[in-house]
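Duplicate of #3305? Posting structure anyway:
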């Protein structure tokens, strides 16, 4: 059974929680990515910032592009995987949590990133990726 370490991107672009939204957006543009893990000075993941976070929480609100990433990132309940997690478990987790990108963490440090596309490229996991995408694309019931 394949593990996340077999398919993850290991040269992960990160931003420090004190860097600006503009710096995060520039990295997204440079590397053509839509989400960047946010780390503290010890390189531990403390959040994730997406292009959507920047658009909705900064640009749409008329906020300053020099706003620290820590003010617009998603910080609670960061869903993460481990390098030895099996690909099927990761696909299920991504579907349940309705996420397209999964940070891979080991000993508190970010060591990789798995995107839904990484699952889809592996022919043997295409079915899991398709099921995960269906779950992600289906709105969940409103929370009571």
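Output from current build:
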């Amino acid at each position: 059974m394949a593990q996340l370490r077999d398919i993850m991107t290991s040269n992960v672009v990160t931003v420090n929680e004190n860097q600006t939204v503009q710096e995060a957006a520039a990295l997204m543009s440079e590397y053509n990515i839509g989400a960047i893990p946010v780390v503290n000075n010890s390189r531990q993941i403390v959040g994730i910032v997406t292009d959507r976070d920047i658009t909705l929480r900064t640009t749409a609100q008329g906020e300053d592009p020099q706003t620290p990433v820590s003010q617009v990132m998603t910080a609670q309940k960061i869903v993460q995987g481990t390098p030895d997690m099996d690909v099927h478990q990761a696909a299920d987790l991504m579907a349940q949590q309705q996420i397209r990108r999964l940070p891979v963490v080991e000993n508190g440090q970010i060591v990789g990133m798995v995107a839904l596309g990484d699952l889809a490229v592996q022919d043997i996991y295409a079915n899991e990726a398709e099921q995960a995408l269906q779950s992600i694309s289906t709105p969940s019931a409103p929370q009571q």
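Confirmed duplicate; merging threads. The chain has a mean pLDDT of 86. The CA atoms of residues 47 and 127 lie 29 Å apart.
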